[in-house]
Amino acid sequence: MLKAGVLGAGHLGKIHLKLLEQSTNYELVGFYDADQQASKQIEDEFGYKSYPDMDTLIDSCDMIDVVTPTVSHFDCARKVIQKGKHLFIEKPITQTVQEANQLIELAKKHQVKGQVGHVERFNPAFQSVSDKFDSPMFIESHRLAEFNPRGTDVSVVLDLMIHDIDVILSVVRSPVKKVYSSGVSVISETPDIANARIEFENGCVANLTASRISMKKMRKSRFFQRDAYISVDFLEKKVEVVRMKDAPDDSDPFAMVLTNAEGVKKQIYFDNPKIESNNAILDELDSFAMAIKEEKEPVVSLEQGRDALEVAMEVINNFKQL
């Protein structure tokens, strides 16, 4: 078992502590949080060992899980890597692309593995259709959330939209050609609503909307590709796959058949992929353990975390404030 420690014991940090303790791949060593009063309370309530300083915890572990505020990601991650420890770090990987590149080079130098916590890659709905994507050419994504002051230290792009940016980059697999965007600040000092249009070199276009001041929650993406439509509801854990194939000459009279202007007949088929229930955060942590043990590339590498951040920063930099 890998000895694991957690930096940051806020809302998400406590979830990671609980899951690392449950995991059969890790031995939870303890945690460090700068708030000593809160640390003592967590230690008393849950029994997790609180360390007096970051260095002592890192020295005691094989892997460190960084769940601190984004502003401290780089400093924490750099220290972890320089001590030769494997790094799991929550999204976004860092505040800047330059910082992310420095971490990537450090990880290569010290020969350690790193994974970024883009948890939607492990969403059971997305995983159930991951093998069905075939060069999608238009993607529409909506990620809407009710207002929560906990995430307003960063733009809605880094708070919410970056999830969909990462998912889309993993599916399209083509360099980004152009990014258009607009954002509006309603309550926060940074934009609370954002829209982005991402054009890829292979011709694919993705239209993304993110809001953290909505009346209802929504996390849904639609992928359109030749002869197929795939809808993924990340919130409800549901998928819809509609395929079109050349209609057979003896098609069922009750089958759904469309005829285009050229007289070509297409039959519509509905797929119902099986969705396996899971805990996505536990799965991403366990997948990182397996990448370390089997010396494989992590599912969401530091490079992929950097790529998602790079697009997110371009979205932010191109904002036209309304």
From TrEMBL:
A family per Pfam: GFO_IDH_MocA
Domain GFO/IDH/MocA-like oxidoreductase span(s) in chain numbering: 148-216
Residue ranges constituting the Gfo/Idh/MocA-like oxidoreductase N-terminal domain according to the UniProt record: 3-118
> Which InterPro entries does this entry report, sorted A to Z?
Gfo/Idh/MocA-like_OxRdtase_N (IPR000683), Gfo/Idh/MocA_Oxidoreductases (IPR051450), GFO_IDH_MocA-like_dom (IPR055170), NAD(P)-bd_dom_sf (IPR036291)
Q: Name one GO molecular function term.
A: nucleotide binding
Report which superkingdom the organism of origin falls in.
Bacteria
- Protein's name in the database: Oxidoreductase
Origin species = Aureitalea marina
